[in-house]
């Protein structure tokens, strides 16, 4: 045998002996720390040896605990090492086929599906769903919720991980699941302006008319969170512009309230849905009056650019202090 081969064999035997001693002498919590440290520095030699030797032990509970904990540490410290993941995950799944892997959670209450979605471990997701997990376990993981009540699908929206969202939806994730505040996946997409995943959800029969506990559709949420591109994409009918939530507010009310009404958005609504820019709400107030009373100067500028003017009737509905500010603002803009 060549000298370098003898050295390799000697080193391998030393590593095996070292790991066996660790398994015999250390508590489980200390072994988990060793694995975590090895994952952090990507010590694949130690990890391969460790799990090979671990499988030869007879302490089933210790094996299960180490596999479970190592699974999550793997995601945090070594997420893109697929061969190593395959070793850890495959051995665990095949060794404990009847064990409930979906019960394994990290400190955030996340399952492996949450962690994969958040960290863009999409190859790992496909590996788990296609090669390792039973259909029943996949369904349970898809419906699992973390400590913030988010399903893995909602996690993909927060992370803008459209590939993971596609994987989840194609494998039966519920696009209409809601959180404790009644917000659906579409509401979450609207909050973050996630148009691509919103389109996927709608293709998988997401309910575009569902409301949260405040009576708000996903379009209200987009207006509240200043997502004009989302609104341009998903406002489909004139009723969308006039639908009030439980506070009596429309999406235009929220755009004005947060001073996010701009010329492009107004022109889009005017040309596509015949929005009357001089129309009045249920309280008899025009868009310009509402903008002045909210000191929404960007919205005021947009409305005035499109020809909106104050009538005597309107002036009576404007707070006198706000009216004075409005005229000063108008004079200032004119001078500029």
Walk me through what this model shows.
With 336 residues, the chain is an all-alpha fold. Among the domains are: 181-275, Serine Threonine Protein Phosphatase 5, Tetratricopeptide repeat; 277-336, no CATH class. It contains 21 helices and no strands. It has helices spanning 3-25, 28-40, 44-54, 60-78, 82-95, 112-118, 122-132, 135-142, 152-159, 162-170, 185-192, 195-203, 218-224, 228-234, 238-242, 251-257, 263-273, 287-293, 297-305, 312-315, 320-335. The longest helix has 23 residues, at 3-25. The radius of gyration is 29 Å and the shape is elongated. The N and C termini lie far apart (88 Å). Residues 1-7 have low confidence and may be disordered.
Q: Any idea of the CATH class of the domain at 181-275?
A: Mainly Alpha
Q: What is the helix content?
A: 55-70%
| Oligomeric state, counting identical vs distinct chains | single chain
| Structural category | mainly alpha
What is the gist of this entry?
The chain is mainly alpha-helical and 336 residues long. It has helices at 3-25, 28-40, 44-54, 60-78, 82-95, 112-118, 122-132, 135-142, 152-159, 162-170, 185-192, 195-203, 218-224, 228-234, 238-242, 251-257, 263-273, 287-293, 297-305, 312-315, 320-335.
